[in-house]
Amino acid sequence: MTAVRCYVYARTPVGATGAPAGPWRVGVLPGGTPALPHAPLTAAADPAAAAAALVRELTGRIPRLVAPPVPPLEGAGAAWWTRSPQGGPYAREHEYVMVLPGPPPPGLDWLAPTPARPLLRDENLRLAAALGSVLDALLAGRTDPAVMRAMTFGHSRRDVGPPRPRAQW
Question: What percentage of the chain reaches a pLDDT higher than 70?
């Protein structure tokens, strides 16, 4: 079975008085253990359209898909990653990053993407925190070392914490 997973972000916009925009918050499914929005796909469904429809159904807003700074290797539209997770209910997952206009709407719980939060034990939530910390650069089309580091987590996801020194032979 194939699925979509959504990294969806929203924030309070710039105030009329010129107050800065609020921090990006990542949307998680309400109740219980935090989890990113996800849903199974039908065989004929377009993954990008299904991801956008899922977020629209949950929040009532039309999300804007954020194009990855590096083109995907496979033809999955604006998918950031297409992976085959080990274990879990899905054989293949298409993952999308998107932003919503306006402040965080009801329908999802909104977490400040801070990697140090103890509840971010899930690798997908740690990746969401890493992406949320560089989202402004991604939206501006900038690819700096912090963005590349956040992107790397989508490939290994073993460690989203600070870089660790590695012993060399």
Answer: 73
